[in-house]
Amino acid sequence: MSGAVVLAALLAGSAAAAPPDPLSPLLSRARAAVREQPGMWTGASVARGEHAVVVGAPRRLVTEIARLAGRADRTVTRVWGAHGGAVVLVPRTEEQAALLAAPAVVGGLAAVATGDRVIVQPAAFARLSAIGRQVVVTHELTHVAASGPRAVPMWLLEGFADYVGYLDSGLPVHAVAAELAADLRAGGGAGADADREAGTGAGTGAGAPLARLPEPADFAARPAQAYEEAWLACRYVAARFGERRLVALYRAALREDADTALRNVLGLTTAELTRLWRSSVRAELARP
Ligand SMILES: [Zn+2]
Fold it and tell me: Under CATH, which architecture does the 5-145 domain have?
């Protein structure tokens, strides 16, 4: 990967005599993105990764994100397989990020994926640690790689992106799932009663830790814990059935409803997976 170049070079396209550029489709997509908001990219830079084109400012951040995207791409390709890559847009302000991401909501997130693009929210991204930045970029590139014709359940969508995101991070489970572990230590959490009722969606105290595989309302009400629960669910599937089956489950859920996918790929009902995930998480997070 070379360093960042000025935007004019991207907009000019490659010279007719130049050899075919494997990034051509992504460069076209980047040009289209820039032309949608031409005023936003004055003085912007462009950096190329192997399967990513990063556009934005400042130049140092664009170069850094291209480097993070290169490493992320190796992880995503190893787990998911070949994919079309992503255009990563790095606007200067939170307002610009919100405009680019709409109708997706940026909220407090450091980045969001919409279709084949990743939008970085610069202020939130700047607050992340070096590991956190790598995790976020890998998470978003996973969303882009694994997007498909059908929406998968949110626990699988976000859990899988975090599964790939954290895979090479070296972070221990208690660090990644710190909020959930704290809630469980504080005595919250679905216990034996919830085990009996798992999957019914009734009487399990929605909002309590591990009450159910997290749903959109849980991500809205207690985002940290919901992401951790989703991550632990996908991590559990990979540990118990193998990473390839986790990927097969996700690919199946892009084609058919999630209950059918679970039954066909893992031989489990949602209620059974919920019970297994709950006991595994309780056991793992109970250990110091
Ligand atoms: Zn996500």
Answer: 2-Layer Sandwich (3.30)
